[in-house]
Amino acid sequence: MDKQPTPTDNPWLELRRLTPARIALGRTGTSLPTQAQLDFQFAHAQARDAVHLPFDHAGLREQLQQRGRDSLLLRSAAQDRHQYLQRPDLGRRLHQDSAEQLREHARSNPGGVDLAIVVADGLSALAVHRHTLPFLNRLEEQIAADGWSTAPVMLVEQGRVAVADEIGELLGARMSVILIGERPGLSSPDSLGLYFTWNPKVGLTDAYRNCISNVRLEGLSYGMAAHRLVYLMREACRRQLSGVNLKDEAQVQTLETETNTPQNGNFLLGKS
C-alpha cells in the first residue's frame, strides 16, 4: 500500500527553494500568516522607494572618472519625476539644452563612433547605482579586442529606453546600448535592463531593439549579460541589423554542453 502523505509533507515547500516567487505561504484561518503579510508590505515599500529614488549621477560620474572613463550628464524633456511617470513620451526625448550639448560634442569630435553607451535611471535608480560599474567592467573586458570607438558614457536623468536612439543619432553612432533601471518587482527592486540598437535614430520602435533583462546578482550575472550583449553587437556589425531579426544565439560552455548530455523532460519531476 502506498504511503499516505502526512500533514507536514507539503510538496510546495520544496518548490520554494527554486524561486523567490511568493508560493506556499501558508494561511492563518482565511488570511496570510503575519510574517508573510509583513514581508509583502516590505517588498512593496522597497519597490515604491526604488521608483522615486533620485539618480545619483554625481557619484556615478566620479566613479567613472576614477576608472578613466569620461561622461556627459544629460536630461530628458521630463522636468521632474512626477512628469516623468505621467508622460513617458517626454522621457524618450532629450531636453533641448542636452540635445544642443550633444551637437556641440559631435562637432568637436567629427566622424561618429562605433558604440554609444547610455545610462538612464529609468524606473529604478537603485539598479543603476548597484550594477552599472560592475557590468561596464565586464563589458569592456570582452570588447577590448574589437577595437570599437566609444563616446563618453551618457548619463541621462528621467530617461526612457528610446532616449538612446536620439543620443546615438546625434553622436553618429553605429550602435547604442542603454543601461536602465527596470520596473521594480516585489522580489527585484534593483533589476537592470540592457537595450541594444543598430543604427539608432529617432522614431524607431521596440522591434528594432534587443533586450537583455534582469541583470543583477540574483538574476543574470554581469559576465553572462556582457557575453550575450557582445554576441549581439558582433552579429549586428556582421548583418547590419538588430531587433526581431537578430536572435540571441550566444553559446555558453557548460558541463551539459561539454558532455553532450541530453536534457529532456521536466527537471522538477526528477530522473525517469
Q: How would the blueprint of this fold be written?
A:
Elements: H1 11-15, H2 34-52, H3 57-66, E1 71-75, H4 81-86, H5 88-91, H6 96-108, E2 113-120, H7 125-143, E3 153-157, H8 163-171, E4 173-181, E5 192-198, E6 209-215, H9 222-239, H10 255-259
- Gross morphology is globular
Q: In CATH, what is the homologous superfamily of the domain at 69-250?
A: Ethanolamine ammonia-lyase light chain (EutC)
> Largest sheet at a glance?
6 strands, mixed
Q: What is the name of the CATH topology of the domain at 69-250?
A: Rossmann fold
Low-confidence stretches: 254-259
By CATH reckoning, the class of the domain at 69-250 would read Alpha Beta
Mean pLDDT: 88
CATH architecture of the domain at 69-250: 3-Layer(aba) Sandwich
C-alpha termini separation: 22 Å
Run of helices and strands: HHHEHHHEHEHEEEHH
Features:
six-stranded mixed β-sheet, 15% strand, Rossmann fold, alpha/beta, 272 residues, 40% helix, 6 strands
